[in-house]
Amino acid sequence: MTSPTRKLEQSTGGLRCAATSDVGMRRTSNQDSMAINLSESPARWASHGHLFVVADGMGAHAAGELASKLATDTISHSYFKRTDRSPSEAIDEAVREANNTIHTKGQNSVDFQGMGTTCSCLLLLPQGALVAHVGDSRVYRLRDNRFEQLTFDHSLVWEMAAASHAAEEDIPAYVPKNVITRSLGPHPTVAVDIEGPFALRSGDRFLLCSDGLTGPLNPELIGMVLSSLPAAEVPQSLVDLANLLGGPDNITAVIVEIANASELGEPVEQKSSKAAETSAAVKRPSIHPLGWIAMAFSALVAVAAVAIGNPLLATLSAGAGIGVGVVSWMLKNSRCRPCESAYNLRGQRGKAPYRCHDCAPSALNISTLGDIVRQLEDLEGQRDWSFDWQSIHEKRHEAHEAISRGDYQAAVAAFCQAVHRLMESLRLSTAERPSDSNVDLA
Known about the structure:
Layout lengths: L4 E8 L2 E8 L9 E6 L4 H7 L1 E9 L4 H19 L5 H21 L8 E2 L1 E7 L2 E7 L3 E6 L2 E4 L6 H8 L29 E6 L6 E5 L1 H4 L4 H10 L5 H11 L6 E8 L11 H14 L5 H19 L3 H26 L18 E4 L8 H12 L10 H16 L3 H21 L14
Antiparallel strand pairs: 1-2, 2-12, 3-4, 4-5, 4-6, 6-7, 7-10, 8-9, 8-11, 9-13, 11-12
């Protein structure tokens, strides 16, 4: 059995990150994997940035655990060794290499045949945030209480919703929500979604998570917790809430906070971009070759028209030649204009954000947390737990006082502390984990 909980916490100039991966309440092993790769030098930051990865494995026995570990390890190693590629190309190739590694391992062993894993990667670069994604794990961005999903779920429900131009909530309940349509491993090739780049701003927070988090918790609740607590406390608080609401799967949450964007590091010098522009100007003619041919033909017609004494035809031919030249120049420059990024990220890719949620703490939004804590208090006396329920009562009272004075972030913090105290007591208890620990909010 793997360790029930794994935690990571790191920081570098202008950035803080924290992560928790938990086995959940119903599983005996953790098939999730995560990786945090912070560039240790300004040069590496400038060329490759920081990389974060979450993978959710699937397969019998230890297959899923191996698949997710292969994904995070292979991607982390492969991405940083590709020094001759742009970040978007390097991360795309790294994910494909991970797919090949997992697929080959599965083909060579009966025990691992058919194993697979999701994969969600976040790159923080001088140009912004770039996302690479396969499966139904997710990457979110929180900015100004706007919680945005930057990844498209490769699940049957989302694919059906997209095909019918409907919301996933409108898909019939009999359609299984846990069927994914794309993952690393089962097939020799895989399509990788690339999203971004998205500009970075001080105060931005990113969340990478497995579906063990987004299954029990709705996005509004996740975003509200993310916006209200210190970054270091968010992963465990989210895991506690997911476990309290059943914890049916492994749960992984990686939080990345841009504490100060100006301290992240200097972007690549502008001369690199200018050199690329100069190179592009040398290699790419200002007018498409077909444009030159059309203009030459128009000029010949105009000369012939003058020779035969037809000024109208000459004027029309000359005008046509000029028009062709202008249009050809515009088309050529619009298609071949050098990318403003020195990394040749080729502008915005993908269609993110795919979902946007208002997660500003408010009396209405906070009611879900209040209901959870209230129902926790209702459990007092129903179980033989050696637990100090008074601390729950105190935190609930503290939360309601904060609500009364309009300090909703403090209320969220108090409610989360109440949940954490109970779940920590359960973790430390030697008693068998209850299988019906979820709180019914229906």
